[in-house]
């Protein structure tokens, strides 16, 4: 149950980092595609049937970074998101929900509300039994587009909740970026991981407002998708806070998309200018894996940020 809750929040974080979703207005998502995503040569589309109901994304985007492919379909009128991430960089068939090398998992999720207030269904149960598959039929490097098909059965963290079947999934001519969204040039972020400086390529801060909830997500990302993330409520005031659990403030350290760690520690907000939408603070935390077993503990120290959102 812990895994499903945490992976759901991480999938939202990854979508924010890769799709550059900037803000929500009047209860709906506005998701401008950044200039890193080229215009497709054909019409981009992303659709799937969810328990017999049609889901058509009006904002389909993707990234191909190192050895990971991410495809995300967002229905902005409702905040629903379908996310697919596979470990690989070539056309082929990828099984979902099966652990490879103990940490790598081809993943998919259906989230009813991107701000975290809704329900999440994940294509994973025991990490041994496949819960679906993704077929990448084409990666057009010249035009930077992806096409393929997918289907999976999603499981909810509530054991009493029914599964959700996503069938007949198709994505076509979805533009992908081969790099990271760099964010505001004024954004500053630093931290050490086990005593070694975390030298990120991208720092993004995003205000998420939907269904009466409002959070600020701060994500520092390397090109290999190693990330450090801090999520706080948008009305947070200067002061000292404890990090831990699944409600803001939340700290995350992810070695890769499929090696995810939840943090417990301390956060200090030193400044929060809501009028100009800028926030600064310091943090430190111990990050432990959400997967069972003898996993390492990562020490994140000397963390600081000063970012616009």
Features:
globular; 10-stranded antiparallel beta sheet; 11-stranded mixed beta sheet; 1 helix; 6% helix
Task: Tell me about this structure.
- A hairpin with a 2-residue loop joins strand 18 (202-210) and strand 19 (213-221).
- Mean pLDDT is 80; it is low at 1-41.
- Helices cover 6% and strands 56% of the residues.
- The radius of gyration is 18 Å and the shape is globular.
- The protein contains one helix and 25 strands.
- It has one helix at 2-19; strands at 23-25, 28-30, 45-50, 53-56, 59-65, 68-75, 80-87, 92-96, 99-100, 104-105, 107-111, 120-122, 132-140, 145-154, 164-177, 188-193, 196-197, 202-210, 213-221, 227-233, 239-243, 250-256, 259-273, 278-289, 297-308.
- Strands 3, 4, 5, 6, 7, 8, 11, 12, 13, 14 and 15 form an eleven-stranded mixed beta sheet that branches.
- The protein has 309 residues and is mainly β.
């Amino acid at each position: 149950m812990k895994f499903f809750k945490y992976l759901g929040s991480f999938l939202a974080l990854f979508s924010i980092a890769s799709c550059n979703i900037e803000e929500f207005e009047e209860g709906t998502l506005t998701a401008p595609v950044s200039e890193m995503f080229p215009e497709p040569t054909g019409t981009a589309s992303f659709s799937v049937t969810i328990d017999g109901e049609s889901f058509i994304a009006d904002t389909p985007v993707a990234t191909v970074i190192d050895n990971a492919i991410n495809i995300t379909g967002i229905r902005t009128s409702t905040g629903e998101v379908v996310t697919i991430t596979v470990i690989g960089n070539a056309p082929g068939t990828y099984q979902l929900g099966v652990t490879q090398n103990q940490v790598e998992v081809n993943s998919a999720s259906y989230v009813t509300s991107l701000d975290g207030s809704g329900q999440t269904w994940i294509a994973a149960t025991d990490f041994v039994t496949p819960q679906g598959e993704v077929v990448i039929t084409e990666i057009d490097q010249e035009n930077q587009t992806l096409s393929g098909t997918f289907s999976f059965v999603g499981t909810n963290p509530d054991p009493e909740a029914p599964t959700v079947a996503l069938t007949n999934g198709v994505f076509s001519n979805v533009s992908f970026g081969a790099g990271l969204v760099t964010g505001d040039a004024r954004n500053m972020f630093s931290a050490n991981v086990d005593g070694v400086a975390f030298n990120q390529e991208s720092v993004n801060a995003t205000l998420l407002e939907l269904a009466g909830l409002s959070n600020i997500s701060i994500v520092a990302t390397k090109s290999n998708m190693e990330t450090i993330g801090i999520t706080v409520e948008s009305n947070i005031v200067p002061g000292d806070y404890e990090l831990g659990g699944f409600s803001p403030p939340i700290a995350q350290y992810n070695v890769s998309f499929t090696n995810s760690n939840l943090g417990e520690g301390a956060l200090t907000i030193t400044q929060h200018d809501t009028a100009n939408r800028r926030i600064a603070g310091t943090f430190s935390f111990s990050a432990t894996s959400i997967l069972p077993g003898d996993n390492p503990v990562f020490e994140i120290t000397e963390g600081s940020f000063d970012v616009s959102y």
